[in-house]
Amino acid sequence: MSENKLKIEKIRKGTVIDHIDEGYALTILDLTGLAESPNLITIGVNVSSKKLQKKDIIKIENVFLNEVQMQQISILSPNLTYR
Fold first, then answer.
1. 45 touches 59 (CB < 8 A)
2. Whether the predicted model's global pTM rises above the 0.70 cut
3. What's 14-82's CATH class?
4. Domain ranges, ordered by start, for the chain
5. Is-contact 83 15, C-beta < 8 A?
6. Cα–Cα distance measured from residue 74 to residue 70, given in angstroms and rounded to the nearest whole number
7. pLDDT tens per residue, range 62-83
8. Residue 67 · residue 22 · CB < 8 Å
9. Which of 64, 74, 77, 83 could potentially form a cystine with 21 if both were Cys, beta carbons 3.0 to 4.6 Å apart?
């Protein structure tokens, strides 16, 4: 049996929020106001992860988080990584 994998493409410049605890991606978008961004947003929910078993991931092209937004999302998901 063949295993299908979904590939989330790289963004040229912008923000990648990875290793979000599963189920928190949409909450983070709403809390930070990023859901209103006109830029390309890619969201992965319940993605397989070696580190967390399941995780969420958010990629936002041409947007960079400020310090307040980083603090907000760190409270919800303290193990996330930001690039």
1. no
2. yes
3. alpha beta
4. 14-82
5. yes
6. 6
7. 999 999 999 989 998 998 998 8
8. no
9. 77
